[in-house]
């Protein structure tokens, strides 16, 4: 390909600059990830899981995999696990809860399947200082809760995330699960580097994330969380983790992510083509949330400028990625024209082979952290390259269809507006008992004056709320 520049060198200068720029930033990201360090366990922890942690699990179709996940959560000895489901699923989920631990697992219901509604109902029924949201298939290491709680020793931290790894559904990973594993490896690098560089995160993944209960008990948060509309018209159900992350930023709270084996969860992914539907939903959520962060709320620019840069980069990434094959196609066309008529001297197959070798080398280099642990997955690198171009086209399609707010992979998830209206019209449920919590809250950061929506908690406060 370098030899080809002798034909028309100026054509290649912009593309060389773009390539150098992108791989320079990737090297910076990789270096930051290598130098990142998780928060160590304190000698005298302020928060104890058995007293201060409630795990909330919004679900509608938990199966046998829930038992393995729940047993892994219970190893950390949380005070309580709250499962929130729709009314028709109460019986089956109560049976699952009874089979695992009826003393520490409670099943609550909402009228309609709606994740945000289920999460808010769980929040209202929580009496501990820390809430951990978890997917019903998230399997934790025994050290997960202590490492999450270690971050809350810093009283300015409002939310904590974790790293992730794929748990195969069968004995062997399918190509779809390997693609998901590749994406998680890259994501783990991104979140650890952004945390290390400026303390920010694009998203505290909803598969497992922890928050201070006092933040989520705020009535303004609960209302905004369940009455979230895109363009004031399209009611949102998914994208809950993006909303929570933005709320931390706009209200002056810090976030952190524990990227280490001690806080790395295992989670299943769709083992078939339905994985693409998951990716489409995630992509729409990312577009909507990042556009809000960058151009509507705008706190991200001053709070976490590096994260703002990564968001802007992702806005243009699908377009810059698609430039590559378009340029190669043009060069191959020019190579079919005689040189004396303005064509290029290299044969078309030489250009194509050079491009494929370049793609294999650079994409394999990006996946080395994953391939170090699973070298057998190198055979899936070509599939990852093809998926990358498909994903770029999908991102453009997602941008043009942001009004589509359906879940995509769960037909049982109802209309969010109907679900929210049903809960708004419902009478108050049983009152949550009050508990006294004595914690060192005096150093909590004040939200920005123009956005202050809840009073600063005193050293001793009451956190019982009527639901």
Automatic annotation (TrEMBL):
Q: Does the keyword Hydrolase apply?
A: no
Q: Where is this region: Disordered?
A: 440-459
- Which SUPFAM superfamilies does its entry note? Nucleotide-diphospho-sugar transferases
Cellular component terms per the entry's GO annotation: membrane
Q: Which UniProt keywords apply?
A: Glycoprotein, Glycosyltransferase, Membrane, Transferase, Transmembrane, Transmembrane helix
Superkingdom of origin organism: Eukaryota
**Transmembrane stretches, start-end:** 315-333, 345-361, 381-400
Protein localization: Membrane
Q: Which InterPro entries match?
A: Glycosyltrans_GT2/GT47 (IPR052427), Nucleotide-diphossugar_trans (IPR029044)
Q: Which CDD domains match?
A: GT2_HAS
Q: Name one Pfam family in it.
A: Glyco_tranf_2_3
GO molecular-function terms, A-Z: glycosyltransferase activity
- The protein's name in its UniProt record: Glycosyltransferase family 2 protein
């Amino acid at each position: 390909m370098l030899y080809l520049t002798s034909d028309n060198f100026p054509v290649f200068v912009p593309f060389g600059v773009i390539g150098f720029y992108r791989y320079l930033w990737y090297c910076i990201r990789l270096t930051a990830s290598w130098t990142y360090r998780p928060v160590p366990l304190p000698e005298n922890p302020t928060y104890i899981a058995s007293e201060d942690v409630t795990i909330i699990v919004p679900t509608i179709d938990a199966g046998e995999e829930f038992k393995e996940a729940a047993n892994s959560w219970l190893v950390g000895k949380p005070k309580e696990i709250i499962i929130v489901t729709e009314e028709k699923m109460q019986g089956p989920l109560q049976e699952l809860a009874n089979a695992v631990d009826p003393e520490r697992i409670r099943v609550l219901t909402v009228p309609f399947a709606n994740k945000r509604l289920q999460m808010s109902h769980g929040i209202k029924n929580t009496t501990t200082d820390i809430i951990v949201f978890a997917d019903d298939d998230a399997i934790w290491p025994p050290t997960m809760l202590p490492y999450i709680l270690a971050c809350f020793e810093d009283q300015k931290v409002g939310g904590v995330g974790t790293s992730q790894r794929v748990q195969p559904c069968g004995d062997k990973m399918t190509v779809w699960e390997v693609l998901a594993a590749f994406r998680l490896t890259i994501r783990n690098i991104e979140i650890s580097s952004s945390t290390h560089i400026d303390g920010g995160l694009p998203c505290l993944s909803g598969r497992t994330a922890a928050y201070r209960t006092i933040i989520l008990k705020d009535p303004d948060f609960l209302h905004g969380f369940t009455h979230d509309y895109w363009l004031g018209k399209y009611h949102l159900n998914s994208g809950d983790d993006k909303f929570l992350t933005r709320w931390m930023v706009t209200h002056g709270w810090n976030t952190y992510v524990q990227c280490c084996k001690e806080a790395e969860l295992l989670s299943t992914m769709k083992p078939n083509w339905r994985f693409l539907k998951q990716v489409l939903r995630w992509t729409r959520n990312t577009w909507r949330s990042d556009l809000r962060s960058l151009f509507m709320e705008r706190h991200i620019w001053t709070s976490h400028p590096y994260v703002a840069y990564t968001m802007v980069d992702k806005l243009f990434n699908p377009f810059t990625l698609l430039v590559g094959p378009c340029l190669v196609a043009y060069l191959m066309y020019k190579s079919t024209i005689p040189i004396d008529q303005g064509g290029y001297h290299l044969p078309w197959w030489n250009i194509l082979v050079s491009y494929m070798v370049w793609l294999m080398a650079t994409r394999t280099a990006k996946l080395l952290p994953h391939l170090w642990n699973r070298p057998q997955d190198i055979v899936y690198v070509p599939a990852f390259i093809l998926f990358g171009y498909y994903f770029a086209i999908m991102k453009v399609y997602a941008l043009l269809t942001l009004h589509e707010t359906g879940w995509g992979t769960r037909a049982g998830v109802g209309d969010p507006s109907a679900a929210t209206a049903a809960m708004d019209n419902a009478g108050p449920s049983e009152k949550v008992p009050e508990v006294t919590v004595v914690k060192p809250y005096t150093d909590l950061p004040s939200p920005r004056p123009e956005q202050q929506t809840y009073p600063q908690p005193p050293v001793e406060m009451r956190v019982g709320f009527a639901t």
